[in-house]
Write a structure and sequence with these properties.
The protein folds into 3 domains: 279 residues, 3-Layer(aba) Sandwich (Rossmann fold); 58 residues, no CATH class; 206 residues, Jelly Rolls (Sandwich). The protein is built from 14 helices and 25 strands. Helix 7 crosses helix 8.
Length: 565
């Protein structure tokens, strides 16, 4: 399977070149202290090919430990003719300084790149690699323009931390709260004990007091929650100007990855019209049916087939062999975008993202006012509604809709049995329908509260009833106007809400149904809105809210699907 991904369109000559890859012995130099501009020294492990001369360098910067003796990544790439530099980020493990996530990675990364470029074993070419936080440490220094940085391979990552911390104005608990607990826990806290505290911490009132439930301070988590809008606090953890990035980038992501949209955004920014044309031609995107931390065929309740397995390490090697060593392995002759179309379970090449041939098609909500639960009368089709009764439900923050699993595609039927979940489904499909691209729900709704949330999910319903979530989103009513300060809504007034569900690529097959779920909570994926104020991290009063969803000629609630003919 991996060979299918890595070698498609690869010329026979490049296969011969790959067969002649070097196999060096590896020399380790561990714990080298590299000084930053402010005097703080970062612990850095070096893995060098056991031969005289200079080599291209691969850099990885991590808050999870730099590997030490025998590190598999360091040895693998050093054996193939690269000097590998793996560094503990500031305040982690043997590195000096204070760990304040995301805040110092731009300058620390740039200073490290400059240090590498001056070493006797460096041939003047640096590539960076790694995923998640390790991908973020690549993006942040890139605009500073180290002359040594030539190529990047960030996987399942982001370059705008605010957009990853908050979605639609709601804080992403499942992504960031347990991570912050783990990264700040005192050395004597047992992981099993920590797990018993998490649900109580997620439900802390006020929400900013999560660390009080745990029993130790997490200053950076409090900072995140104290800044629910994108103000100056977030400036040091966001790439604002991509025009200064003059390198080739291979972006790898997953449709169910928690940083899916961050991966897509980075590719779109690096292929935007304001980027130098030569740089735009050096951008790659690969999106598979994966969750965070896995490139396997098995994801949640689904098996996407053997073609969905990916040997990421070999792909990284092939990318850097081409970009840093100049090996003509066909990499740059391949189309820039490679996507896995779920449902059909095949890989397909494309020339851009989103796809230029997309037909954005509206599917409207319908009911007689009883769309509650999967047994209700909600329906979904392309006919514009006329006069229809709205749907209502009561959102109780003390009994939120629970997130099935984490990010993986898991059956939603238990969620769909709740009275506070509205379900709109097409009839059984007689023809296949592919949706590839960004998905959005346009919702016309009112609430009895002065602030509340509305959530939406796109679901693929299989014969027999299995309901698999494809993508989802949320909008906080107080944050309905992006870029503006939070503001209350007028109770019982109808507002238009645009809910981004991020993106997907899925073939709805014959015999399946397309479904949209609407509610007001998705916990603990997102923090609860207590309905009592406009700063949910500080609110302490819990209020039930009556929510009304409209779908008529004047207020035509719908989902906008990116249909590919």
């Amino acid at each position: 399977m991996a060979a299918f991904i890595l070698l498609w369109m690869m010329p026979a000559s490049s296969l011969a070149q790959d067969a002649q890859q070097p196999d060096y012995k590896v020399i380790e130099k561990l714990g080298v202290m590299v000084e930053m501009r402010d005097g703080v020294r970062l612990s850095t492990d070096l893995y060098l090919p056991g031969s005289a001369g200079t080599f291209p360098v691969l850099l990885m910067r991590s808050p999870y430990g730099n590997g030490g003796a025998g590190d598999s990544e360091g040895h693998f790439f050093a054996r193939h003719g690269y000097v590998v530099v793996i560094q503990d980020t500031r305040g982690r493990y043997e590195s000096e300084g204070v760990f304040n996530p995301m805040q110092t990675e731009a300058h620390d990364g740039y200073d490290t790149q400059q240090w590498i470029g001056e070493q006797s074993w460096c041939n003047g070419k640096i590539g960076t690699f790694g995923g998640s936080y390790l991908g973020f440490t690549q993006w942040m220094p890139a605009p500073l323009g180290s002359p040594y940085l030539k190529a990047m391979f960030p996987s399942k990552t982001f370059s705008d931390f605010y957009r990853e911390a908050y979605v639609g104005g709601a804080f992403r608990i499942l992504r960031w709260s347990p991570w912050s607990y783990f990264m700040s826990a005192p050395w004597n806290v047992d992981n099993a004990v920590l797990e018993t505290l998490t649900d109580s911490a997620y439900r802390a009132i006020p929400f900013i007091e999560q660390d009080s439930v745990l029993g130790w301070k997490i200053p950076f988590l409090r900072d995140w929650l104290a800044h629910p809008q994108k103000d100056l606090y977030w400036k040091r953890s966001c790439v604002e100007d991509y025009t200064g990035i003059k390198v080739s980038v291979y972006n790898l992501g997953g449709w169910f990855d928690s940083f899916q949209q961050g991966t897509l955004d980075n590719f779109m920014r690096m292929t935007a019209p304001d980027i130098d044309p030569e740089i735009r031609t050096k951008q790659k995107l690969l999106m598979g049916p994966w969750v965070h931390g896995s490139e396997s065929r098995h994801t949640g309740d689904l098996d996407f087939g053997e073609d969905a397995d990916l040997d990421t390490r070999e792909l990284v090697l092939r990318w850097f062999d081409n970009q840093l060593k100049g090996i003509d392995n066909g990499m740059m002759q391949e189309p820039p975008v490679r996507i896995f179309v779920m449902g059909e379970n095949v890989w397909r090449s494309e020339n851009e993202w989103p796809l230029a041939r997309t037909d954005y098609r509206k599917y409207y909500f319908h009911s007689n006012g009883n769309a509650n639960t999967v047994a209700g009368d909600g329906s979904l089709n392309t006919t514009v509604p006329k006069k229809e009764n709205p749907d209502t439900f009561v959102y109780n923050p003390e009994d939120p809709v629970i997130t099935p699993g984490r990010d993986e595609p898991i059956d939603q039927r238990e969620v769909e049995s709740r009275n506070d979940v509205l379900v709109y489904s097409t009839g059984i499909l007689k023809e296949e329908l592919e949706t590839t691209g960004p998905v959005e729900v346009v919702l016309y709704a009112s609430s009895s509260a002065i602030n509340t949330d509305f959530t939406a999910k796109l679901v693929d319903v299989y014969p027999g009833g299995k309901a698999i979530r494809l993508c989802e989103g949320i909008i906080r009513a107080g944050c309905r106007n992006p870029g503006a300060p939070p503001s209350a809504i007028r109770p019982n007034k109808i507002y238009k809400y645009n809910i981004s569900l991020w993106s997907t690529s899925n073939l709805f097959k014959r015999g399946h149904q397309i479904r949209v779920e609407i509610s007001s909570s998705n916990f603990p994926r997102f923090n609860r809105n207590l309905n009592s104020g406009i700063f949910p991290a500080l609110d302490t009063t819990v209020i039930r809210a009556t929510q009304t969803i409209f779908h008529n000629r004047e207020y035509p609630s719908s989902v906008i699907l990116p249909v590919i003919e």
